[in-house]
Structure formats: structure tokens, C-alpha cells
């Protein structure tokens, strides 16, 4: 790894592992099972303990052979050397929840606590747990019903500091 490459990607670190189960068959090898695990850490501002982590797991299991293959999507590709990009046609799924949220308190109570913490601890300098609290706030707001979200907005509309955190997390 060159020094220049390390400087360019110092905010992003990750590792991926793969596990394969193979079976010898006549004429080659058959892939029966593939498991992938990826852990990525991103620290956008080099803050002390200000990193977000994303964990991804994927499992592929062989099910059956098909006599007819799938037709590739006909699209115009641009020559970028040996790379070829194919965009899947199925729907993009929503991301997996990254932070475990408490089920003891209702969402509104959890959001109130996080907002109070963010406003109280981030006035002059950014608190060390602000990035994780912000991600947690974002994920809790995604779980809410529209009516509950409207009630939270009405509650904090006259408080600029709270309103700023809410707007930043829902836009």
C-alpha cells in the first residue's frame, strides 16, 4: 500500500471475508454456499470516536440449475478498460438498520432524549458521540408514522436548535 493511497482513504476503512462451500462434480467444481461478511468504518471529519460503522452480511445458497439462462439487460455500456457495469432491474431495498434501538421506550420518548442530548452537548464543539446519536435519530425518525412525525415537528417548531437537528436528519 502506497503512502499516497493511504492519505486518500484514511477516513474509510473496511474489511471483507468470504466463505465458500464447494463440491466436486464431473467436469469441475460446483459452488454450493457462499457467505460474505463486510465491516466498514467511516470517519468523515477525523473526530475522536466519531466514526460510523456499517456491517453487511450476505448468504448465497445454490438451489437449482436452469436450462435456459437469463438474458442480459440490453444497455449501452461505455468502455472503461476491463470493467463492465450492469445495473440490476429489481427494486433497491432500504438499508439494513445499523444501530440497535431500545424497544422499552416509545419512539417519541427516544427521539426526545436524543434531541435533548444533541442540543445540550453540541453548542460550541461537536461532542464525541454526536455522529452516532445523529444516525440513531435518523433511523428512529424513519420508523415513525407520519402523524407522530408531524407532532414532533409541532413540538419543536419554535425552538431553533431542535428544529435544525430535526431538519438535518429528515432531509
From TrEMBL:
The organism's place on the tree of life at top rank: Eukaryota
Q: Which residues cross the membrane?
A: none
Q: Name one GO molecular function term.
A: lipid transporter activity
Write out the entry's keywords from A to Z: Glycoprotein, Signal, Storage protein
| InterPro entries tied to this protein | Lipid_transp_b-sht_shell, Lipovitellin_superhlx_dom, Vitellinogen_b-sht_N, Vitellogenin/Apolipophorin, Vitellogenin_N
Gene3D superfamilies referenced in this protein's UniProt entry, alphabetically = Lipovitellin, beta-sheet shell regions, chain A (2.30.230.10), Vitellinogen, superhelical (1.25.10.20)
| Coiled-coil region(s) | none
List this protein's GO terms for biological process: cellular response to estrogen stimulus; response to estradiol
Boundaries of each Vitellogenin domain copy? 1-170
The name under which this protein is listed is Vitellogenin
- Specify the species: Chrysiptera parasema
Amino acid at each position: 500500500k502506497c503512502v499516497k493511497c493511504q492519505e486518500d482513504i484514511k477516513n474509510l476503512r473496511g474489511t471483507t471475508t468470504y466463505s465458500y462451500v464447494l463440491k466436486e462434480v464431473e467436469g469441475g467444481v460446483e459452488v454450493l454456499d457462499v457467505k460474505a461478511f463486510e465491516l466498514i468504518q467511516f470517519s468523515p471529519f477525523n473526530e475522536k470516536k466519531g466514526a460510523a460503522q456499517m456491517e453487511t452480511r450476505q448468504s448465497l445458497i445454490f438451489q437449482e440449475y436452469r436450462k435456459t439462462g437469463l438474458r442480459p439487460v440490453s444497455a449501452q455500456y461505455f468502455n472503461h478498460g476491463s470493467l463492465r457495469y450492469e445495473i440490476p432491474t429489481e427494486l433497491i431495498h432500504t438499508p439494513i438498520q445499523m444501530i440497535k434501538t431500545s424497544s422499552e421506550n416509545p419512539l417519541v420518548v427516544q427521539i426526545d432524549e436524543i434531541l435533548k442530548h444533541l442540543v445540550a452537548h453540541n453548542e460550541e464543539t461537536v461532542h464525541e458521540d454526536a455522529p452516532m446519536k445523529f444516525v440513531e435519530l435518523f433511523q428512529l425518525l424513519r420508523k415513525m408514522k407520519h402523524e407522530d412525525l408531524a407532532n414532533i415537528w409541532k413540538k419543536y417548531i419554535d425552538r431553533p436548535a431542535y428544529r435544525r437537528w430535526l431538519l438535518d436528519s429528515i432531509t
